[in-house]
Write a structure and sequence with these properties.
This protein has 228 residues and is of the alpha/beta class. It is built from 6 helices and 8 strands. Helix 5 links the parallel strand 7 and strand 8. The protein is globular, with a radius of gyration of 16 Å.
Length: 228
């Protein structure tokens, strides 16, 4: 069970869910939300990372639209709300808030990682290209193929999990990502054959336990390498 803290960024204050480990491993993570807000799925993910020793913080990136959004993916009405929030969301200000969260964590942790899902997967990618993060992991990020020019010498170590049958990231987008990110020794991309978008979202329509477990194993190994 976590708690909430207030983080102050350049544009104002916002809330963040914090999961504190009983046995800290000395590492901290920014856990970046999907389009459903800081909901139970995201809080549970933070709790899982905390169980593995990470101080895990989930910032409320929709606070400019409406603070405290917390919905599920279980009804058409909630999906409609989620897409409405997504349409109103500004990616650039979201990265500003992620940097503010990194700054908050860097007061107590020298190395900070980020992991994001869906919308958060795109933001995790941009976190690697734009912020002071140490390393970043993207789960089925949407729209990365349109921002490949952001990759450069400043890009931090980055791991991407891509579902081969992702209904939001088609084959052309996946091919563009593979081509655009190839040759970058600090960027690794794994494709999960036969899986669809949000394969790691427990309770979701496309959840796949084996795929989620493999991706999580790779994520932890990646953080073990870069946050040690």
């Amino acid at each position: 069970m976590g708690a909430y803290v207030t983080i102050t960024g350049p544009d104002g204050e916002f809330q963040a869910y914090v999961a504190t480990p009983n046995r800290p491993n000395g590492r901290a993570l920014v856990v970046i939300q999907e389009i459903f807000g800081v909901n139970k799925v995201m809080r549970d993910l933070a709790d899982v990372y905390a169980e593995q020793g990470y101080l895990a913080v989930v910032p409320d990136l929709f606070w400019r639209i409406q603070p405290g959004i917390d919905i599920t993916d279980q009804t058409p009405e909630e999906w409609q709300k989620a897409f409405d929030y997504f349409g109103k969301f500004n990616v650039d200000t979201g990265i500003v808030d992620i940097q503010a969260t990194i700054d908050y964590l860097q007061k107590t942790h020298q190395k900070v990682g980020a992991v994001g899902y869906c919308l958060g997967g795109l933001l995790a990618y941009l976190t690697a290209t734009r912020t002071s993060i140490t390393a970043s992991v993207s789960y089925y990020g949407v729209g990365i193929q349109d921002r490949l020019a952001e990759v450069g010498p400043q890009t931090k170590p980055l791991l991407l999990h891509v579902a081969s049958e992702d209904s939001f990231v088609n084959k052309d987008a996946q091919a563009a990502m593979k081509t655009g990110l190839s040759g970058q020794d600090h960027i690794h991309l794994y494709v999960y054959d036969g899986l669809d978008h949000a394969f790691a979202r427990i309770g979701g329509q496309h959840y796949d336990a084996a795929g989620a477990a493999l991706a999580h194993q790779r994520t932890i190994a990646f953080f073990d390498e870069h946050l040690s």
